[in-house]
Design a protein that fits this description.
With 366 residues, the protein is α+β, with helices and mostly antiparallel strands. The chain has 9 helices and 7 strands. Among the domains are: 165-215; 222-361, 2-Layer Sandwich (Heat Shock Protein 90). It is rod-shaped and about 115 Å long.
Length: 366
């Protein structure tokens, strides 16, 4: 019983309708009582004032042999105070409306109960099923907003997990370079390069912290010297013992510097892992800037060209941890290219090898 009388929306709605029923029925009874009492007293008083009873109809005139009327038989007799039909009607209306109030309150609070259960499920798992968008307009709107919120939360959690994995993956490159340079401490130039690697790692970590403070991408578009960036990447790779060449030239472009660096570094790392050497080509035009990185590796099967962009997807031919990585490089490159507003495309080269090209538009620079 205590559970029924808890302060819930259902109880409030039901109590409100129930109170309205009681008040309306009491008002009806009071009005009926006043009406019958007032009519009876007025008629009886009129007859008393003249000291006589109402005259009988002509067809009821009694003969001399008829028994005389008693002193009170001719007085006015009011109708019954509460006719039986009135009680039956009131009782029927009361129970019918009470049942309607009960089921109506149940129906009204059902969408809110579904919303509460869905919120409880969402607190335990992000993969809980969506709420059915059914019921009245307000209930459908609330369910739609809740489903959209659940999808956004799931996407944000997955994106943050991918971002954290990407940063951990990208930190390997400067750490590896630092390890190789530390083996040659006698060269004075290594100090400046070590400092540059530390600054790069610091920038990655700062970007990660800013990301987890609530913004998906706090980096702002800037004018970037792509030529200098590519030459620096090639020089670092050559210094690490790889063969990397740069063809063509490119003017500065407005883009996200950290995102583009992330994209190109992962593409170059992927090319060197499978092809041992790489060629970076710059093809510039007033409309677009295309950066193409090619290797001489085994390539990727045609039906896998899109699948390799998914996180942690690795091909059967690259399951060796020494060369295959963990399957994040191309996924990171794809996401970084998208952040820059570019398009990343993979193509197999005739005769062997893979071409990874990113196209950046210059139209927004005007």
């Amino acid at each position: 019983m205590k559970r029924f009388f808890r302060d819930t929306i259902f109880f409030r709605l039901f109590a409100l309708v129930f109170a309205a029923l009681i008040i309306s029925h009491l008002a009806t009874i009071a009005l009926v009582a006043v009406s019958f009492r007032g009519g009876g007293e007025r008629l009886h008083g009129s007859a008393a004032m003249v000291g006589m009873r109402p005259p009988p109809p002509p067809h009821l005139i009694f003969s001399d042999r008829s028994p005389p009327l008693s002193p009170h038989e001719g007085d006015f007799a009011p109708p019954p105070f509460f006719p039986p039909g009135l009680w039956i009607g009131l009782a029927t209306q009361f129970f019918a409306l009470m049942l309607a109030a009960w089921f109506g309150a149940k129906v009204l609070v059902r969408p809110i109960q579904r919303l509460a259960k869905a919120a409880a499920r969402l607190g335990t798992t992000l993969n809980s099923p969506m709420i059915e968008e059914a019921g009245p307009l307000e209930a459908r709107r609330a369910a739609r907003v809740f489903n959209q919120m659940q999808e956004r939360i799931r996407s944000q959690i997955e994106e943050r997990a991918r971002f954290l994995a990407a940063v951990s993956h990208d930190l390997r490159t400067p750490l590896t370079r630092m390890k190789l340079r530390m083996e040659r401490p006698d060269e004075k130039i290594q100090r400046d390069r070590l400092l540059a690697d530390i600054e790069e790692m610091s920038a990655m970590l700062n970007a990660t912290l800013e990301y987890f403070r609530g913004a998906a991408s706090l980096e702002r578009p800037q004018l970037l010297d792509v030529q200098a960036l590519v030459d620096s990447m090639a020089e670092n790779a050559t210094e690490s013992g790889h063969e990397v060449s740069v063809l063509g030239t490119a003017a500065a472009v407005v883009t996200l510097p950290m995102a583009l660096r992330r994209c190109l570094l992962n593409l170059l790392e992927n090319a060197l892992r499978y092809g041992e050497s790489a060629q970076i080509s710059l093809m510039d035009s007033p409309e677009n800037l295309v950066i193409d990185i090619r290797d001489k590796g085994p390539g990727i099967p045609f039906d896998k060209l899109n699948a390799v962009f998914e996180p942690f997807v690795r091909l059967e031919t690259s399951r060796n941890k020494a060369t295959g990585g963990v399957g994040l490089g191309l996924a990171i490159a794809k996401e970084a290219a998208s952040q820059c507003g570019g398009q990343l495309i993979l193509k197999n080269i005739e005769g062997g090898g893979l071409s990874a090209s990113i196209t950046l538009s210059r139209r927004h620079e005007d």
